[in-house]
């Protein structure tokens, strides 16, 4: 598998993954009808870096890394990960999350925060727990799930420095 | 005291308040050296609405209201409040927060969230508690305080609907 930073020319291969996941409405805090143009801004322009993971010329997954809060919060980063439906169940989210933690350290971040994990997304919560993220907040009914109605959203957090 | 929505022409009166508070670095997640131009975008352009409170032609305080997370999170708003140093200790933060909750309900929001309250900002934490906000998250060492080093940041949350 090859890992590299995304260029704008790659977005044709990322958009179908983004669109499928966001249109489902059960994981990301983006409008379900987010357009391709908006997605390009959200996934490529706003973040500090965006990576893709590819095999045999197929994009299997992608993630972004950005600063979560400016000024007094700028030592904490935020990431978002997307796996192509054809590549699920193969540990790619783990691979991407571990890669993102290395990149975060290289960029000088001291912690990583996920702001809005739907509590109903149990697979993600279990995975982030396994990878060392603690649930540090629970936002009551903050996530409007397409079939379950209002569910809680979790804030998850990991300090990245060794020994801290 | 008069309350009204801010226009761009008002920013000359808001900028000194913004600059003093943000340059201190102990409350807002904005860079301490935020420029006037950046402040205008953050305080007037990015939010959904921005209000000011004035008396005898003097701006005493200002706040913004915006959607905190898009899509599945768009029923939760976020606000930020600033009080001019000359107007502190007169209950204006309470007045503004109560006003913002009314506006939030008018705009159709169901909850209000503060994402990043420095735990060292004890006066604010006490006030938000008094006004019905619960501490629903604690981000370890997420706030770099100018004199105390890394302190925790709190996530505070209030459901706005009556009876909920």
From TrEMBL, chains A, B:
<protein>
    <submittedName>
        <fullName>Ribosomal protein S18 acetylase RimI</fullName>
    </submittedName>
</protein>
<dbReference type="InterPro" id="IPR052742">
    <property type="entry name" value="Mito_N-acetyltransferase"/>
</dbReference>
<dbReference type="GO" id="GO:0016747">
    <property type="term" value="F:acyltransferase activity, transferring groups other than amino-acyl groups"/>
</dbReference>
<feature type="domain" description="N-acetyltransferase">
    <location>
        <begin position="1"/>
        <end position="161"/>
    </location>
</feature>
<dbReference type="GO" id="GO:0005840">
    <property type="term" value="C:ribosome"/>
</dbReference>
<dbReference type="InterPro" id="IPR000182">
    <property type="entry name" value="GNAT_dom"/>
</dbReference>
<dbReference type="Pfam" id="PF00583">
    <property type="entry name" value="Acetyltransf_1"/>
</dbReference>
<keyword id="KW-0689">Ribosomal protein</keyword>
<keyword id="KW-0687">Ribonucleoprotein</keyword>
<dbReference type="InterPro" id="IPR016181">
    <property type="entry name" value="Acyl_CoA_acyltransferase"/>
</dbReference>
């Amino acid at each position: 598998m090859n890992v590299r930073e995304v260029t704008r020319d790659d977005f044709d291969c990322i958009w179908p993954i983004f669109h499928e996941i966001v249109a489902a409405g059960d994981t990301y805090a983006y409008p379900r009808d987010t357009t391709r143009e908006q997605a390009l801004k959200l996934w490529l322009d706003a973040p500090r870096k965006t990576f893709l993971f590819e095999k045999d010329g197929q994009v299997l997954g992608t993630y972004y890394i950005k600063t979560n809060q400016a000024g007094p919060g700028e030592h904490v980063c935020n990431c978002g990960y997307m796996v192509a439906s054809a590549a699920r169940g193969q540990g790619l989210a783990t691979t991407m999350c571990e890669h993102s933690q290395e990149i975060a350290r290289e960029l000088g971040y001291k912690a990583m925060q996920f702001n809005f994990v739907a509590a109903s997304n149990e697979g993600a919560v279990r995975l982030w727990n396994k990878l060392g993220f603690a649930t540090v907040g629970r936002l009551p009914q903050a996530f409007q799930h397409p079939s379950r109605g209002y569910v809680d959203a979790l804030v998850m957090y990991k300090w990245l420095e060794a020994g801290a």
